[in-house]
Design goal:
The protein is of the alpha+beta class. The chain has a single domain, classed as Gcn5-related N-acetyltransferase (GNAT) (Aminopeptidase). The chain is 26% helix and 30% strand. It has an 8-stranded mixed sheet. The N terminus is likely disordered.
Amino acid sequence: MSKKLPLQTTRSVTPVAAYHQDLLLRDGTLLRLRALRPSDRDGLKALFHRCSPESIRYRFLSTIKSLPVELLDRLVKVDGATQLALVVVPLEEPENRIIAVGRYHVIADRPQVAEVAFLVEDDFQKRGIGTQLLDALAEIARAHDITHFSADVLVDNLVMISVFRKAGYALTSSASYGVTHLEFPLLDKADPA
């Protein structure tokens, strides 16, 4: 069911802007996973406003009531290698309706480690989207010589912690001040070594 375009690697001049994949959810819903585009700015704002305060708190690790322009600028700015974002859109609606976003950015002083984060619209949570975003981001990250992901997750965000635990990666974790810090190697799950 999935159609994947070849990934660009660090040896390529072109970023992964053409990446897309069709997703089939457990309940039969068909969605499109694709690279974030500069034109997705309004779609990200709309996603933010459709999410509950709890979902926003889980994503940003604090309560924010509006998406500041500076933060939105940072979220839209991706280079396809050290900063990458994928969005999930319905196939049967306009592609500017974003229902989920997953992203990573390389940690400056640890160039083989990228921090990963997700936001999934409340009505689409617990349907496998976070797991599929994580797997797609990991595949792209490996192609860009990123060897580990890290994530900071609020300790009460049990759904996201479960996504990471069930993904099949070897997690290390520590908790401090209400935040669980996770880190895991991006070994290809199909390759046991």
